């Protein structure tokens, strides 16, 4: 697959600041590569603090006018953007597959998924209601109104280059905020194409600004946003360690933060579960995007009475997965994002085997395909002495743990600092309510492996972060509540 697009103008190399495409300060740039082949895809702007500040300047200037637009005007703009995203699905999917590695069919699905957030928040823009508070004294009227919080900095990861940026920018724009954004260093091309489409949709200059940067320069750029008191909110998806850093460093200006951080999701299969359905649910939850998702199951607990049968069914399905680059129309699992990711996966599998795990499927690098490929893997006899029990693998590895007691498996499932997602399969109606209430996560999949939706609140508890994205609740993180008290009314 080449980088030729139907609309070549969607391949952008510069920063998007104040409605203009401009080079980074000093004309600095870095190379974006294809994880499937390590081939050079593009050379993009390598931004520093000065570029981040220029983006903030533009967003700050644009804020008053954008804040004062009517909600239906903002909704119309978002609807035009949504239509353009869908109309350019093939180009966006091609860009995504080439820079991130996911199969083309999966990339097309992400375009539709990301666009759904733009459409959803176009509708939500017109539903920002306040309240008249019942009187407590004669002659006074009390009201609560919601206002846009201000300039928002959005920092997104590489695993969903389109969906994550859309899920953050769309509610910010719907609320009347302006945005400065930095996509992940590995995957800036999809995000920059989205910015080009937003410009085409008629978004006013300065309302959305986007800069790209390599790792070290990106840290400096983000640090500028953390220190600038004009940036009133940070929305970040990524590792817990970086999320904690952002929280600490932004404390000086008391910014509002939304943090969607790491996970260590349990997947519990009870004895009375429909095993075929549980296997299908696990395939959806675990192997989407090659296991490179924050909500994919990292610990799979299977009741002892069905353990061997479940392992057999799962291994058969996993062994049949077709691994290959996006150029392979049959590919279901693509390359991992880089060599560091492959090394971590191999380390986790090797450690598990050394501590007694049995390999039911996979368990090896696929060097014949390229540097960044690892076979989808199922491990039996996993235990809590293994590194993968407490560290997020972020790859196509499914370790199976045994359990016999409901209370014990819930205790073990909750025995982690993370709390993003959890899944369980059972046909016992009473157990469904009982287990769902006891699991300490922000998201619970009940007899279901695909939980994400633009209509649902997405986010975690504990060290998986705070704030919610998507749904009617997703707008609240971009709004502040102002209390109005009017006296002298007789």
Automatic annotation (TrEMBL):
Locate the Aldehyde dehydrogenase domain: which residues? 21-483
- Enzyme type, top EC level: oxidoreductase
Question: Sorted alphabetically, which InterPro entries does this protein's record hold?
Answer: Ald_DH/histidinol_DH (IPR016161), Ald_DH_C (IPR016163), Ald_DH_CS_CYS (IPR016160), Ald_DH_CS_GLU (IPR029510), Ald_DH_N (IPR016162), Aldehyde_DH_dom (IPR015590), Aldehyde_DH_Superfamily (IPR050740)
Give GO terms: molecular function aspect only. Answer: glutarate-semialdehyde dehydrogenase (NADP+) activity; succinate-semialdehyde dehydrogenase (NADP+) activity
Residues at the active site:
260
Assigned keywords, A-Z? Oxidoreductase
Record flagged with keyword Oxidoreductase: yes
Q: Name one Pfam family in it.
A: Aldedh
**Coiled-coil annotated spans:** none
The keyword Oxidoreductase belongs to this UniProt entry's keyword annotation: yes
Enzyme Commission numbers on file: 1.2.1.16, 1.2.1.20, 1.2.1.79
Q: Which family does it belong to?
A: Belongs to the aldehyde dehydrogenase family.
User: In its UniProt entry, what is this protein called?
Assistant: Succinate-semialdehyde dehydrogenase/glutarate-semialdehyde dehydrogenase
Species this protein is from:
Paraburkholderia silvatlantica
